[in-house]
Amino acid sequence: MLLLAAVLVSFQPARHAPPRCCADAAPPKRVRRNKYAQHSKADAVRESLRFSRIDDPATAAATTPATATPPAPPKIRVRGEWTYPDAAAVDQRDPTTFGFTEIGTVLGAHGINGELKVRTESDFGPQRLCERGVRWLRRPRRRAPREVALLGGRKGPGAGVYLVTLDGVGSREAAAALKGSTFFARREVRPAQLAADELLVWELEGLTVARAAVGAGAGELEDGELAAGDTIGRVVGVVPREEITGNPELGNDLLEVELGGGEAVADGGEEEAAGEGGDGPDTVLIPYVPQIVRAVLPERRLVLVDPPEGLLDLVQPKRRARVVIRGLLKAEGAT
Hints:
Layout: H1 2-10, H2 42-48, H3 57-63, E1 77-79, E2 82-84, E3 100-110, E4 115-119, H4 125-130, E5 133-138, E6 146-155, E7 161-166, H5 172-176, E8 182-186, H6 201-204, E9 208-214, E10 226-239, H7 241-245, E11 254-259, H8 263-273, E12 283-287, E13 293-297, E14 302-305, E15 315-316
Parallel strand pairs: 9-14
Antiparallel strand pairs: 1-2, 3-4, 3-8, 4-7, 5-6, 5-8, 6-7, 9-10, 10-11, 11-12, 12-15, 13-14
């Protein structure tokens, strides 16, 4: 019996042994395919994100066809009651470039009911932070502000500090999580306390500055009416009086004017207007007082000034870039 069993085992065919020629071949790899790729809308969504994405210039240049026609310049868009600026002038990390103005910064939580302690430098703090309505809040490490509902506010401890309550923030933990956030308001929403002849700082930026000429006998202007003379430059900023004197009741504001055009270029040429260092045009500070700033015409984007002699010579030259040498190369052949 033992001999018969051995014979049967020796003649049993090897059914599962692979062929000799394919014994060392690697098994085929499994190809994974995304069956939902045909339904993806990632490319369409990316093209729609105009104000919330930052494209790599190198990547954008590589993906742009060489024969593509340049797109038409974007126009000012109006959606509802808000105006959106040209996309070329938008800095995605600076909400003030696309229709917002900063009104306060969250210092932290106050109490246990979710109140926020907000510091503001706005001249309209009570209206901006105490009146019920819609505001915009940008959290830390976020680029764009989000709409929030302000339920109310009251004067807090310290100068320029208010205690603000938001809808949906009802605990100290939720309020503390908003520390470092920034409150914004739409520029189109003008404070009610603003007089008809008063302007906000951002409304002066970008206006053309020209000499005021008396319109006696000048075209259709009546005697005493002001006309625009030689162009001096444009307003690039405003220096508040409290930054100079430390007291808002002393001194006066200053218009920071970038020289260019008119006499500024005609007298000294383009090189002088561009500054000695070639880093851009020089600027002058013009006191914002009625004796010098004779008229502000926002509808014409114009500021008429009558500067005293020598004021425009007090330029603020652009500083040239400093070159710092951190090491010297050895002379050729030196060890």
